[in-house]
Amino acid sequence: MIARAAAGAALALTALLPLHCLAQGDDPGRSRGPGSTRRGPSEEDKERARQKIGMTREQQSQLEAVFDDSGKQMRAIFDGLRERHRKLSDVYDAYDIDEGQAEIARKGVLELRRKMLQLQATAEKRVRKILTREQFERMRALMKEESQKRRRARMPGEAPPGPPRP
After folding, report:
1. Is it the case that residue 64 has pLDDT exceeding 80?
2. What pTM was estimated for this model as a whole?
3. Cα–chain-centroid distance for residue 18?
């Protein structure tokens, strides 16, 4: 259950990340997490993405602001989710489950997941206020292309190995 909840949280974040990467012209395969030594997108990368989408520099700046803001909020939510899942795991470590504590932890997870979905919806609405329909459609097409490239890069020629079959 904890793994499924974490996967759902990760899925919600990944819906925002490709958009953030494209808005900034970033290489979505680059690591930009805490402690990352990699730099952000070059000015050339940003310009290429801006031109592909057909947006102005002002629109690009506005998108970057949306994603910087939502990215900070999303990281805070993930930190909270990690803590809630740790607490739930601690409760489940005991043979005699404290249902009261388990329920508190589960409600905390659900509340943070709700906030995550609200944050995503708000960011999506803000993006649509910045871009025209045509720009938005070009951006989404680019996002899909980049997502497929990342998938192919992770799984060249075949799916990753699964668990051993009985």
Report:
1. yes
2. 0.66
3. 7
